[in-house]
Amino acid sequence: MRQKALPLLVAAIFAFGNGAANAHDAHAEHRGGIQSAANKAVKADFDIVHAKVTTENNVVTFHMAVSGKAGKSKPAKTGKLAGSNVFSYVWPTSIDPYEVGFERGTGILAMALTAHPDFDDTPLYDENGDGNLTNDGDLWHSHWVVLKPTDACGPGALGVVDIPNGAKPRLPKTWPGLPILIDSPGWEPVFKGQTVEVRVPFDDIGVVAAAKFDGVTAGLRVNASVHAPLLCVVDVFKVASGDLSLPGKPNQ
Per-residue confidence at 4, pLDDT binned at 50, 70, 90? Predict the structure, then answer.
């Protein structure tokens, strides 16, 4: 399922190019954005064929389509936090993390939809409606995350930015208390057949309209030490652009 070596992807993320993969789908909902040909070597529910970002009033819609049933696969439960896995649909952007509540210039801001049965990182929300706020990690849910190359995750690999012990950085109000730059705002993703979307309110919609984006499906893993780093990207299943060059432009 690995599409490319992680070091090559990380090297490319800062090269904001204009290339995109070949067109795939002629349906209206798949027009514009970034098109990608289906790849039988990638598991179908992570095989991105289209990714786009649109804005309407103060709401941003992150959209992704795959060649199979979106959201079908989730990680196997391990029974412990350390070493557990996370599956994700991700839209890396060129938006400064400051715009959603983090410090300026801290890394690559991405909208991520994740599922992970071994822990719950949305403590303000009861996604499964059972009255327990701490047992919903296996359901798909949304995050803002800040990523950067992290040597401790492997040569050239990306990780979610850690918060050093004792540091008190600027954080969003819905930060879940983990020692990483992550926000758990509670926006619910909608899976429908081959597509997934999440609608996100945004204070300054002009910032989004001027940004660039890409689409990624990936597997992450909680470090055995559960900190420094806490969460690393360990598998990149597919990149919409093919090279993580962030060629997408909202509303185009």
Answer: very low
